Amino acid sequence: MCRNCTNYTRVSEFVIVGFPSLQPEYFVLVAWFFFFLYVTTAVGNLLLVVMFTLERSLHEPMYIVMVSLALSDIGFATVALPKLIARYWWNDGSLGFHTCFFQMHMIHYFGSLNSLILLTMALDRYLAICFPLRYPTMMTNQTMAGLTLFCWGIAHIFPGISTISFTLMPFCGPNKIIHAFCDTMSLKSLVCVDTSRQYSLAFASAMFILYVPLAFIIFSYICIVISVLRMAKGQGRMKTFSTCATQGCIISIYYIPRFFVYVTPFIPNLTMTPDKRIATTIFYSLFPPVINPFIYCLRTKEIKQIFRRWLQKRKGVMPTKHGQIVAVTMSN
Q: Which residues constitute the signal peptide according to the record (predicted)?
């Protein structure tokens, strides 16, 4: 415990340091890199949301959960990246005391939300493949919308407990956060008192919200594989495998890097420098939101068909070559 905790000067703001070993001549390049990541994430996921809104053929449970994941990815990138970009573009890494805790809460909130969305995604595929006759009545659009709203609400619980407990603790020392954003790990080292109890609670909560859903996801996909292998060979089996492979890619990208980061402290003679830890965190936090829209477009037949139809309509409005375009389209 700290001494004289009643006579400390409370920190009024925090400063995002980012990569501590990065030389100033690379600041602008790094800022442009994160700006490109943010624009790509926002535009790619927003395109999926617009497509879902305009195309009634996509108003199905599977696409409802995909849109929910796209909105969550936009939210995470919006919370995490603007201040990091400002830190390297204008050397402005300062965050107000409560603003930092708000960012910490939202960072962990969207992480928890993504885990619950992936759980819902796996549940949808499990019911669709293992109980195909009952699926239309068990998983309607209204049911999926209700599950999605439930995930968006309950995801606040565990991050909220951690955020409140850390907000009430004294911060009387350094205020520089050696990270890309405010989170539990970075703020723990700035508290003036012993945080082992609070950190253990936060760590246990994170493990629960991440790996309890993962356990069900693994179980559901084992059941799915068994059910698919029992199917007669043909197009139905390939379509099922294709749909599951799309979601399997998304789930793998989300969980595998996190697992590596969490087990690193328990591996003897394996340590991570602050720069490596920040780079790994940024990878598993920002790579899935960037790559998810491309996975949807490349792996989902319905979305590829919609894109193709949109492109053909766009070409069709050109009056001088309208006939040629129709002829080319029909010949293919």
A: none
